[in-house]
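Researcher: Next sequence.
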Amino acid sequence: MKKMIGRMATGCAVVLMAASTVFSADATLNMDVNSAYVCRGVTYNDGLVLQPSLDVLKGGFDVNIWGNLDIDDYDGILDSGEFSELDLTMTYSRSFDKLSLTGGVIGYVYSAGGGDKTTAELYGNASYALADKITLGLAVYYDVDEFKDTCYSMASLAYTQPVGDKLSVTAGAAAGYMARASKYGESGFNEYKLSLKASYALTDTLGLGANINYTDAIDDDVLVTDVNTFGGVSVSCKF
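Model: Next structure:
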C-alpha cells in the first residue's frame, strides 16, 4: 500500500504538470523537510519527514497533491523511506476587497501502523485583512467518509512583515476545536499553535523558506500531545 501511495503521488504529479502546460496554468512545486509531522496537534511522526507538494492554479481553481515520506520510523510504528500519506485537494477561491473565501474537498489516503484508510473532507476557509499586515482566518473541515460527522475548525491570526524586497516574516497564532461523533471520543478545544515563518525569494521563480512551531493541547480530555516543538526548511519552484 505504501509503495502504491508513492506511485499514486507520482502519477498525480505527472497529470497535474501536464494539465498546467495544456491549460496554461500556474504551477508551484514545493519540497519541505521537517523535524516532525504534526497536524491538528496530533503527532504522526516524531522524526524527520520529507513532504513534497504540487499546486496547479487557474482562474481561482487550485488543485494540490501533497505527500508525506517518513525518513524516521516513529519507534518502529512506520516504515522509513516509505510514503504514509497522500492528500489530493481541489478548491475554488474568490476575493471581495478585504475578504477572501475558499471552498473545496480534500481526499486522504493513509497507510501507517499496519492499517490502510481513505477518507474525505469538505473544506471551507475565510480570511479577512484586519489591517495592512494582519489577517484573521477561520477554516472548517467536515469529514464525510471514514470519520463521518467529525468537524475540525481552526481560528488563526497572522502578522506578516516584509524585510526588504525579497524576505518576509510571518508570526502566527491559532487554536483548533474538534467536534466528534461520540464513538470517536470527546469534543472540545483541541490545540493551540504558535508559529514563525520566513520566506526568501532567490529569483522570480525560486524561493526558500523556514519555520518553527510550538503546539500543545488545550483540553487534555480531547487531545494528548506528543511532539510540541517542530520546524523545518523548504524550497519552492514556480513554473
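Model: The chain is about 10% helix and 65% strand. The chain has a mean pLDDT of 91.
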